[in-house]
Amino acid sequence: MKFIIDEQLPYTLCDFLRAQGYDAVHVNALRSGQRMSDETISERSIAEKRVVISKDIDFLKRFLIKQEPYKLLFVTTGNIKNSQLLALFETNFSILLRELSINDVVEISQTAIVVLI
Q: What is the pLDDT of residue 32?
């Protein structure tokens, strides 16, 4: 499984995914001076079969309307410390992988993992 991490999430999440052996890129490392649009991120996600990890509800709306990006891990934790976010991913990573292998949109919050689509 490959991932693309949206700009409002920390680089350390990308580092965590790589340490687990996954191909992960952060959008800030891909852009050349300008912010990457959601459309560009979605196109890259589809072309490379990457799961978008984002807090941006626009990606959820985009999936409901256009069936893109390729897959979405929607993070609804609110503002938490990076260490708390990483701990949440560490604790739930095997569940997230399983759900993303069979579903298109999965939400993770501080209290639950929910399959949306």
A: 72
What 3-state class would DSSP assign to 89? helix
Task: Report domain extents, the chain.
Answer: 2-115
For residue 16 the two structure tokens come to 């965590």
CA dist 32 to 21, 27, 35, 54, 59, Å? 26, 10, 8, 20, 22
Number of DSSP helices (H) and strands (E) in the chain, helices first: 5, 6
Type of residue numbered 67: Q
Consecutive sets of 10 residues in the chain, 117 residues long: mean pLDDT of each?
97 97 95 85 97 97 97 97 98 98 98 96
Tokens at 44, concatenated: 């890259």
- Bond preceding residue 10 cis, omega within 30 of 0: no
Judged by DSSP in three states, 115 sits in strand
**Is 97:3 a contact under the CB 8 Å cutoff?**
no
This prediction's pTM: 0.96
